[in-house]
Amino acid sequence: MSNSIQLSERVNQTKSQINALRKQGQVPAIVYGKDVGSISVIVGEKDILSAIKHNQRAILIAAIPAQGNKPVLIQNIQRDPISNKIVHVDFHQLNMNESMDSKVTIHFTGDPAGVKEGGIIQIEMYEVEVRCMPDNLLSAFEVDISGLGIGDHLHVSDLAFHEGIEVLSDPSSMLIKISQAHAEEVAASA
Question: pTM for the whole thing?
């Protein structure tokens, strides 16, 4: 819990008032959870960008109006499809004494032996669903794929998370495979 974030109360506002807030660098948001219910708030766009710069799944200490400081997790960020600006944020208030469900990003590291032999990497999944205590939540999990040859693959069941993290994703789901390049592709590249 390294970051803190200031949230301001947002009363019922019209769409034009919310758009005016966005132009001023404020983002409408909602905080929900067992302790706080559902609260409409506003957060500074710079604050959100700073918080997610290093870890989008970081646990933040949010100063929530009339509720005090509570640990929260960014559950969802909605962006404008054209400008990519943040238009809305969902915060999930956490109970640090209860396990939670979340997603963990998989980072593949290393150069697979099969690619050096002419194979092609096919990534099927970039994240897995896990259940753990909030203190055990990982921002990303690194998987070394340098030993994979042509025809090799990794499934969710091949991941070795540390104790305290339960993987909820289907164990038989494929994460990555190294496929043989088709003959036409090999001839074209030669």
Answer: 0.71
